[in-house]
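Sat 14:20. Reprocessing the chain from the morning session after the first attempt stalled halfway. Input below, unchanged.
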Amino acid sequence: MAGEILDLFQRGLAAWNEGDVEGIVAMCHPDVEWTFSDRLPDATGQIRGRAAVKDFLTRFTEDWSEISIAADRIIEAGDNVVAEVRFVAQGRDGIEVSMQFVHVWTAREGQVVRFRGYPTLDQALEAVSV
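Finished this time. Tokens:
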């Protein structure tokens, strides 16, 4: 499993940066659970299921003319990948945003079953007991 979750994460990051919402959704378990760090106003709370993920990603990306995520650090922890990521975007009105987040992806049987966002690496590592 160790390499499998890392591969899913890297493919997911590439799909995000290519604007491939369908590619991200296809990696997810039908009952995938996404929980956000609440640092962005449009990315708060929790959603469940592929349809909800697709709806969220489609709505979220509509507000940006450019958007990307880069992983600055990746830590494998069992069925999880903990990644410090840099979110860089430019709004349709020209405002630029750059923020740091920590993502935790959990996989089972080749599918993402859970995505969680955290404001700090320490909180994410504590959540996966590293």
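The chain is about 35% helix and 45% strand.
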